[in-house]
């Protein structure tokens, strides 16, 4: 399989961040990744497909995404978009910009949590976007550099204390979620090591010394997912990674990732990812370039 384009961003070592506010008729940049953190806002682009890791979603009139991982592939594909005037505001900044002792302060705790979540990419709902729209709208035209930096901090803070949603699965992005209890970590590690096998609730419950009923409630409370949904997402993440990184046929991948029925695998993959495994592989192939 071809490599993902490693983007060299225009960010200067002497600048806090780089911003570009552009109008375009289509998206042409291929699937890529980069070390810098990126906040990307898209307006008037309904029908565009946003690809972040194994998350493939069709966006509406407004879309705002934060990516904080150098190994997370992402791209925007024209999809069904017919807009003659797409606006895109891209902000890129170094992971070192807000790090060390500063991020350890209480005032930056919510931003730190958001950055950790954005290892998998996070998307913001319309309500959150509207809270920062005016700041985003005028950020590129602000001529005073220090004022521009303060506005970026304000945008990041407002985003961090409002709702956002994680995009890529941990098994696809090879990134861990936020720190969790030892019991949850133990179960998740076991699932990652044995996802190709049949996983029984009773076995996982005994692993952490709990009854099945208590463990089910505990796991849902700590992860926000039922055990069966979590296992399914892990298997789908590994399957998506194999679709991207290998040439194995889809039926092989289906069975290697713990699914025992190809039709069921295709149906579940499409319901969770929005495209079939075949379409997902084709989309990555289309957006990749050899470097």
Number of strands: 11
- Could you spell the SSE succession in H and E letters? EEEEEEEEEHEHHEHHHHHHHH
From the N-terminal CA to the C-terminal CA, the straight-line distance is 12 Å
Number of domains: 2
CATH class of the largest domain: Mainly Beta
- Rg over C-alpha atoms, rounded to the nearest angstrom: 20 Å
Structure characterization notes:
It is a single chain. This protein has 291 residues and is α+β, with helices and mostly antiparallel strands. The chain folds into two domains: 5-170, Sandwich (Jelly Rolls), CATH 2.60.120; 180-287, Arc Repressor Mutant, subunit A (Orthogonal Bundle), CATH 1.10.10. The chain is built from eleven helices and eleven strands. The chain has helices at 109-117, 126-139, 145-160, 170-173, 182-194, 201-207, 212-223, 227-245, 250-256, 262-273, 277-287; strands at residues 5-6, 17-24, 32-33, 37-43, 49-52, 55-58, 62-67, 74-77, 86-93, 122-123, 165-166. Strand 5 (49-52) and strand 6 (55-58) form a beta hairpin. Helix 1 (109-117) packs across helix 3 and helix 2 runs antiparallel to helix 3 (145-160). The protein starts with a strand and ends with a helix. The model has no long low-confidence stretch (mean pLDDT 90).
């Amino acid at each position: 399989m071809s490599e993902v384009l490693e983007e060299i961003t225009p960010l200067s070592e002497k600048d806090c961040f780089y911003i570009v506010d552009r109008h375009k008729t289509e998206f042409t940049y291929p699937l890529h990744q980069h070390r810098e953190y990126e906040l990307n806002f898209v307006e008037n682009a309904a029908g565009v497909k946003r690809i972040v890791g194994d998350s493939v979603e069709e966006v509406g009139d407004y879309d705002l995404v934060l990516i904080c991982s150098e190994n997370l592939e992402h791209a925007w594909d024209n999809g069904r978009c017919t807009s003659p005037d797409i606006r895109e505001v891209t902000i890129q900044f170094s992971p070192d910009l807000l790090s060390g002792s500063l991020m350890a302060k209480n005032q930056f705790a919510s931003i730190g949590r958001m950055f950790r979540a954005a290892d998998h990419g996070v998307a913001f709902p319309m309500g959150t976007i509207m809270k920062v729209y005016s700041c985003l709208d005028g950020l590129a035209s602000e001529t005073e550099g220090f004022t521009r930096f303060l506005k970026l901090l304000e945008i990041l803070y407002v985003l961090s204390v409002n709702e956002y949603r994680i995009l890529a699965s941990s098994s696809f992005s090879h990134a861990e979620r936020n720190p969790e209890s030892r019991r949850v970590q133990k179960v998740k590690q076991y699932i990652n090591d044995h996802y190709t096998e049949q996983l029984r609730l009773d076995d996982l419950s005994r692993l952490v010394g709990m009854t099945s009923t208590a463990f089910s409630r505990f796991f849902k409370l700590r992860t926000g997912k039922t055990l069966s949904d979590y296992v399914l997402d892990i298997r789908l993440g590994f399957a998506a990674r194999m679709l991207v990184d290998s040439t194995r046929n889809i039926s092989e991948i289906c069975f290697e990732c713990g699914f025992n029925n190809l039709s069921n695998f295709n149906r579940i993959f499409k319901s969770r990812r929005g495209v079939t495994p075949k379409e997902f592989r084709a989309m990555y192939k289309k957006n990749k370039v050899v470097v």
